[in-house]
From TrEMBL:
Signal peptide: none annotated. It comes from Thioflavicoccus mobilis 8321. Pathway: Cofactor biosynthesis; tetrahydrofolate biosynthesis; 2-amino-4-hydroxy-6-hydroxymethyl-7,8-dihydropteridine diphosphate from 7,8-dihydroneopterin triphosphate: step 4/4. This is 2-amino-4-hydroxy-6-hydroxymethyldihydropteridine pyrophosphokinase. NCBIfam families: folK. It is an enzyme of class 2 (transferase).
Amino acid sequence: MATVYLSLGTNLGDRARNLECAIACLTEVLDALVLSPVYETDPWGFNDQPDFYNLCLRGETMLEARALLYLLKGIERAIGRGKGTVWGPRLIDIDLLFYDDLVIDEPTLTVPHPHIRGRPFVLIPLLEVAEDLEHPVLGHSIRGLAAEVDAARVRRLDLYLSADKA
């Protein structure tokens, strides 16, 4: 089994429901899920859009990295994500952040995710499930990377979603 870390974000429609739908789909393919609380964050890149709900999770999978990425993109499509603007509004975004300690650099898959550093909306929730995880390329812990970002616009909500299968 491989340990994987994912980031989920949404800023359109019923944001909590979008995350719940994604998590329900993920419970079918990931085991031992541990979820961060939900955070509300300012948009990144393109600011004229609604705030995001973000969370990170840790899970275990038998799928290899490429198959997992393909499945994640299928979940996004099933929830209603289409082609949109880069950094624009979306119903759901699911990013594969880490897959064990593998380093993969291919045209369709880069692991660790190349944009983890400097993104408070990823690093602050990721602290909840991977505080001591070391980035295999940068050589820093998630705690160390999170200390580099301005977390003032990352607001922890009193919203804790469950990965329990119904």
